[in-house]
Fold:
Amino acid sequence: MDRLALAVETALRRVKVPGYDIDVINSGLITRFRFSKDASRIATFVDVTGKTPTCSFCKFISSVLLHTTLKRVKEEVKKLGFNVATFIDAFTGKEIDLE
Structure:
């Protein structure tokens, strides 16, 4: 693994899943990442399949926690110098909008 990939993985391991003592990589939330050759952009693949509750209130809480966690991931990778950080649903390939 090259130096930048190792730095990204280390940064991602600092982000814990709220309510659990596990990071976003070991939890399986972040499955992989890719970055541009010039290291200005990073795409992080997120596995959210099968994790959406059926209860409306639970869906809301789950969505808030996911967005909070991904914003923390974005903060960590921006510290490494990435100007653009996007999140991709690992199952559908669609971009996850944090706004």
About this structure: The mean pLDDT is 88. The chain has two helices and three strands. Strands lie at 30-35, 41-46, 84-89.
